[in-house]
Amino acid sequence: MPAPPAFADISAEGIKLVPLRKTDNMDELITDALFDRQDLRTAGLPRAEYEQCTFKSCDLSGIDLTGTVFDNCTFTGCNLSMAKLSGAAFRDVIFTDCKLLGLHFEQCSPFGLSFSFEQCVLNHSSFYQCKIRKTRFRNTQLQEVDFTECDLTGALFDNCNCTDATFDRSILDKADFRTALNYSIDPEKNRLKKARFSLPEVLGLLHKYDIDIEK
User: Which residues pair with 151 in a beta bridge?
Assistant: First the structure.
């Protein structure tokens, strides 16, 4: 019986198919592919390594991304809310204008974990114990996001809404909160060496004391 062809079985228009590259835990390598306005909730996304791929206006909400690798990929206008991320890898991935509600990034592979977020909604997501130094959050909703024990050294929170975000035993050395809004950070429970803040939001460091500060 002949062996099946060594190509990814994907029918979405505009996707470039490439020969399979066998590794210990990955069957397919897909490079330079464009996924444009694809609803992947039913068909799912093949478990593969995606390298320099572009996802535009795709719906991946609730799908299982277990073991999937994204390397130097971009997601624009996509919905990945409630996707399952067990063992998924995000390496130098850019998210722009995406819905990323309720994601558990602590379930991702920690190897090379790195991404940036621009105009995204990350509400109710979790980065528990993630090491994501120098991550860029710009114009992003971070309401009720869990950063407990997260290493955010050098991270940027540019014009981000941090209402009810949890910072507990987090490493925030050299992090930039100068334009962040509505954060509440306990200096006694978090590392803040050379972190940057600005008035009046810096008063968020004093919320625990329940005091009134007059201008």
Answer: 131, 171
Q: Which of 137, 147, 101, 98 is nearest to 122 (CA)?
A: 101
DSSP string, 149-210: T-B-TT-EEES-B-TT-B-SS-B-TT-B-TT-BS----TTTSB-TT-B--TTGGGGGGGGG-
Give me the phi and psi of 38, to 5 degrees please: -100, 135
CA distance 173 to 191: 6
DSSP assignments along the chain, one per residue: -PPPPSB-----TTPPP-B----SS---EEES-EEES-B-TTT---S-EEES-EEES-B-TT-B-TT-EEES-EEES-B-TT-B-TT-EEEEEEEES-B-TT-BGGGS--TT-EEEEES-B-TT-B-TT-B-TT-EEES-B-TT-B-TT-B-TT-EEES-B-TT-B-SS-B-TT-B-TT-BS----TTTSB-TT-B--TTGGGGGGGGG------
Give the model confidence (pLDDT) of 103-113 as tens digits. 999 999 999 99
DSSP state of 24: S
Using CA atoms, how far apart are residues 205 and 69, in angstroms rounded to an integer? 38
> pLDDT tens, 191-205?
999 999 987 666 656
pTM of the entire predicted model = 0.84
